[in-house]
Design goal:
Elements: H1 3-10, H2 19-60, E1 64-68, H3 75-83, E2 88-103, E3 113-121, H4 123-129, E4 136-137, H5 149-152, E5 158-162, H6 163-169, E6 176-182, E7 197-208, H7 213-216, E8 219-223, H8 224-231, E9 239-244, H9 250-261, E10 265-269, H10 270-273, H11 275-313, H12 315-323, H13 328-364, E11 366-367, H14 370-373, E12 377-378, H15 384-411, H16 414-418
Parallel strand pairs: 3-8, 5-7
Antiparallel strand pairs: 1-9, 1-10, 2-3, 2-6, 2-9, 4-7, 5-8, 6-7, 11-12
Helix pairs in contact: 1-13, 2-11, 2-13, 2-15, 11-13, 11-15, 13-15
Length: about 425
Amino acid sequence: MHYSWKVGFRYLQPRRRHFLISVLTLIATTGVIFAVAAPQITLSVMNGFETEVRRRVVNTNYHVIVLSQKPFTDHAETMERLSRLPDVVAQSPFVRREAVLALGSGARLTQRLHGCIVLGIEPAKEAETTRVMQTIKPDFVGFDTTLFDAVDARHYPGIVLGFELGRDLGASLGDVVTLGAMKDIPPEQRGLEKLDFNRRDFRVVGFLNSGFYEFDSQMAYIDLTESQDFFGFEGRVYGIGVRVRDYMEADRAAARLDTEFGMPYYTNNWISMFRNIFTWMETERKLMFLLFVLIISIAVITVVGMLTMIVMEKRKAIGILKGMGATRAGIMSIFVIHGTTIGVLGAVLGSGLGWLGCQLVDRIGIALPGDVYIIDSLPVAMRPDDFLLVSLAAVLLSFAATLYPSWEAARLDPIEAIRYE
């Protein structure tokens, strides 16, 4: 083994004679450990957040939506054409309208109103296209309310409310709610009829608990036929929700559908609808990585100070080595090896600490306010490339921190170094 490796590693070992060196080495190593662990934990939490948001968005939204600029009366034929396309896995017609909800009916109607978005769906087709039906509690068996009719000897159509929406209304399973909305008027008849406000009573048959606050706080689901009658769609639909084979290719699939169908049809997709959220998260991730590089840089400054102190304390030893024939490169390599080894050791131990921290956060499960953070719990997703990049940054910065002190050590004049010793 070359003498520079032996000397460099010897300075890493705690010795009574080299107490100051040992303390400085411990401080520098500890700084690098925490500077590596903190970014790894934070990036893992950000990865988990992004992954969980994407999963919940995809589960509760159609991958692609086919719409029409004219009244969508030929949806049956359009669905038949869609079923023959290779990208399409499932499809579901739907009616979508804004409305207001209130708990109770008739004279027992409460004054607490809540805006909502109502989707009229076919449950069987919806279950194939999204995972909304699977998140309804209790287990969804349809909009039939026969089992509840014995409560007040009256029949009401069924409605499923988002969990947060139901909680804001104070609604429970089996309660009656009143839905109010403007009746839809076809474009060619607008201006010829007065505005028609409809209201109808529904019975709550379930609650949507997707964990995606934006949905759970404003969505309500009713049967497609019921929605067509209530909103005045009269055999029309608002659009057709499509599930494609690869949801990450939804924008390309939508572009192919636009080409296939042409006017008056057009499409939208979940990537376009939620692009601002994922662009924000990606931008934040890049900025956070730059910030963490700065944090690691601050930590490795202690390596510069440590090596400078060692060079000052070991002037005599350096002079003797140079007097014995040690080259400048050999002297430099002693301190480069010493400082870089601290970076490697800090990266390895810091990665271990980061992994333990991620496991702890994942095991504890930290709750989040859903109205602020979109989802209601803090997820963790560890990625090997993030751990590797942070560790590599720590090692490279530690190596860079050794260059100036080691260069100063190599420049020492051996005669000046030992003159007063």
